[in-house]
Amino acid sequence: MSCFTYIVRCSDGTLYTGWTNDLEKRIACHNQKKGAKYTKSRTPVTLVYSEQFETKEEAMRREYRIKQYSRKEKELLIHTHRV
Fold first, then answer.
1. CA gap 55, 38 in Å, rounded
2. pLDDT tens digits for 21-72?
3. Are 52 and 2 a contacting pair, CB within 8 Å?
4. What stretches of 1-83 show up as alpha helix (H) in DSSP?
5. What residues have CB less than 8 Å from 32, skipping those under 6 apart?
6. What are phi and psi of 57, to 5 degrees?
7. What pTM was computed for the model?
8. Helix (H, G, I), strand (E, B) or coil at 78
């Protein structure tokens, strides 16, 4: 089963990073205010980055690394890896 690490841009411009095994469903949940607590008040969200992995562990490791990035580093990642 494939897993994804993703970044969404919220309606207020903030960025949220997560991982999932069903990317389309997760984005829909964020937009229905059923996603992470962080994005509930910041909908709608737009997918701006995703990366596919073979295992959940790989996706979780990548998500953790991205969460350590500064805003500038996340923006650079988004601009170099268009969805």
1. 25
2. 999 999 999 999 887 887 888 889 999 999 999 999 999 999 999 999 999 9
3. yes
4. 23-31, 37-40, 56-67, 71-80
5. 43
6. -60, -40
7. 0.90
8. helix
